[in-house]
Amino acid sequence: xxxxxxYLIVFTTVPNKKTAxxxxxxxxxxxxxxxxxxxxxxxxxxxxxxxxxNANELLLIMKTPHHNFKKLEKCIKEIHPYxxxxxxxxxxxxxxxxxxxxxxxxxL
Length: 108
Fold this sequence. Notes:
Alpha-Beta Plaits, four-stranded antiparallel β-sheet
């Protein structure tokens, strides 16, 4: 019996459109992800160096097979200006077969 492929939604926040575009231009052609959505005007509140901080950011949402996570993480870190960038994932528990097939078709 063939093992069922697992898929992820990967999130990262970036400080500006320039960084978002740099990540998109580096990652999308590698086929590590099938899609990157950019959500604008995200206001983030967080702890950093023992202080509560806030920043306006963009949120990147990427879809990929589970086996690509480590390579994707490495690519993001090579470009990302933050000392500790948010790079987190959520398993896609369910999805339409057509959409999951599309992710598989356009990723390595």
